[in-house]
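Q: Given only this backbone (236 positions), what sequence would you predict?
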């Protein structure tokens, strides 16, 4: 039975509810747009917003690496031991992919700058410097089986995916990176989606980070007027 969840929180208009939609296990090579259309039929309609987990889209696109296939360097081992317990880069395999993407010099510079900034009371410098090289990688802890040992990378062309998904469903869509740490980021969306408000709405992570198998969430407006998550398209 589908149970709408309240998303009431500071900065979110009263009247928005989230409906997590359970899906079959997503596998590499799946047509995720077609899967999306089938599971939201009868649930989502025009005026709603469909929020889709970036990990599910990336897995369907084959954007993942099994941790055992990565051979961490000494630098990856050394730096990962000093990362926070909840950080993606506390896994040497995940950090090695960051090193491969950005280069060892940049990673080492970011690590040194991070330590210096911490001494001045500023946190997060490593992530500021590394940017997408880090945010594009999800660590393998907390990923739904059978992907619990897979490092999931960023999905390809999330804006293009959302355009295809909206064409299939007739509903505005967004690909989002949300977690249980009260953080949410829109990676791609239909042109009509209010991205800033959507990120505030999803900080409660209605997708879940466990075995819920609900990578799709339909956001509905239960009050009078238009859903504040949807504004006029940019090219309207």
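A: Predicted residues:
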């Amino acid at each position: 039975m589908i149970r709408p969840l309240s998303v009431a929180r500071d900065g979110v208009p009263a009247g928005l509810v989230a409906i997590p939609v359970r899906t079959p296990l997503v596998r590499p090579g799946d047509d995720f747009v077609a899967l999306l259309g089938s599971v939201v039929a009868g649930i989502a309609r025009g005026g709603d917003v469909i929020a889709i987990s970036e990990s599910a889209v990336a897995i369907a696109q084959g954007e993942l690496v099994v941790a055992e296939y990565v051979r961490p360097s000494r630098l990856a081992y050394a730096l990962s031991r000093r990362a926070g317990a909840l950080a993606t880069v506390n896994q040497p395999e995940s950090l090695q992919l960051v090193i491969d993407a950005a280069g060892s010099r940049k990673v080492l510079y970011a690590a040194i700058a991070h330590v210096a900034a911490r001494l001045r009371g500023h946190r997060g410098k490593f992530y500021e410097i590394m940017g997408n090289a880090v945010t594009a990688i999800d660590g393998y802890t907390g990923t739904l089986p059978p992907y619990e040992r897979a490092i999931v990378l960023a999905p390809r062309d999330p804006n293009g995916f959302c355009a295809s998904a909206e064409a299939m469903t007739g509903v505005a869509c967004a690909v989002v990176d949300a977690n249980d740490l009260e953080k949410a980021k829109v990676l791609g969306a239909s042109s009509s989606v209010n991205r800033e408000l959507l990120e505030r709405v999803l900080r409660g992570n209605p997708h879940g980070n466990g075995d819920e198998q609900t990578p799709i969430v339909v956001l509905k407006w239960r009050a009078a007027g238009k859903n504040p998550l949807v504004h006029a398209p940019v090219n309207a």
